[in-house]
Amino acid sequence: MAPEPVGDIGLIGLAVMGQNLILNMNDKGFTVVAYNRTVSKVDHFLENEAKGTNVQGAHSIEELCAKLKRPRKIILLVKAGPAVDDFIHKLEPHLEPGDIVIDGGNSHYPDSIRRTKELESKGLLFVGAGVSGGEEGARYGPSLMPGGSPAAWPHIKEIFQKTAAQVNGEPCCDWVGETGAGHYVKMVHNGIEYGDMQLIAEAYDILKRGLGLHEDEVAAIFEKWNKGVLDSFLIEITANVIKFKDDDGEPVVTKILDSAGQKGTGKWTAINALEAGTPVTLIGEAVFARCLSALKSERIRASKIISGPQKEAFRGDKQQFIDDLEQALYAAKIISYTQGFMLMRETAKDLKWNLNYAGIARMWRGGCIIKSVFLGDISSAFGKNHDLESLLFDDFFNKAVHKAQPGWRRVIAQATLWGIPSPAHSTALSFFDGYRSEILPANLIQGLRDYFGAHTFRVLPGKENAKLKANEDIHINWTGRGGSVSSSTYIA
Question: Is residue 193 flagged as an active site residue?
């Protein structure tokens, strides 16, 4: 006889994230049915971490589905890629129209677009949910970014919003949008995370190598910064990491190999930006900085062969420089988020998603890795104007960047004189200066392209004449030897 359906939601995948999310949902009053491919893990979980809870176990896909109330809701927390499709195929024979499959892994958003269409064609519903916050977030309240089949949202809304982190009584979870929107927003979140960490690492390097400060002094600076405009999870844990000592009293951070790993979400964001033609330069530099860090043995050889400027002691006002660096970090973060939201707007337009940008910023205020006070200001900006083209057009951020400008420029100039790399800070300032420039030297690029490849150009408004006509693709015979035939125009 089939078991009585008692489960509010099922979860497949009992690694740390899966276990913690189950316990979190249990705490919020929901009955969760747990399953794992290695079924012995189910019994171990029930006998240990889940002992004394209302968590139910299942030893097969069939039992899992039988124990769930309709419409069935099943979260997959398994490795992104083929494993997700494999479990979906195994679930399908035991599901009924209207049942909901939720992928909570770090899946690439095109896969979620495909899975939404495939499952909807079979009468099932799919949700691709970004989950951020790591182990602790999963246990006590993550940021949840669900998207996919809109019909699924009313059935999972209560569970998701009660399980998510809460900020000022508001859940860090709301419906993001159609098909792959949930995983897309999580991808951009992770890209911004890459940028934030690179900016923080550069600030640490400038304080340590530039000003010659010890880790304890650097940690104290980050602790102070965490009480101001930079108040955020990453600044908080940066102080903790920098001041953490080994058994010999040395900071552990000084013993860590300076070769950063990556799992791909930052790279996905940078690739998406290139495909969309959106200048998300800071995340791109953050990804490339990790790639450069991975060339450790080559950098060791280079350090012995290639020389830079002679390091001189800083003779300026040290506290003023530290304050400048705080403003530089703040301004560069504003640029990074400006670029991230520009990218989301461009993709939403292309894929016809209706993204709620104020809501996305609210989702990121708590539970996730990039949570910060700063996100409340972003939410307010988009709350005032949903169609805001750029955060730099919002009065709050416009004033903040202009206030930060002098210190921002002084820091980058000094780092350059020291020979200390600051790719993320520098590209943020370059973007800012390019974005505020009415005229850029791309006119020369277009002239060169037409000279060597007959790629044509358009005329600047107000500069038209009988030869250079408005709104036409023009080719000039620059040398007198070329012809009048031009190359076709296209955008790669």
Answer: yes
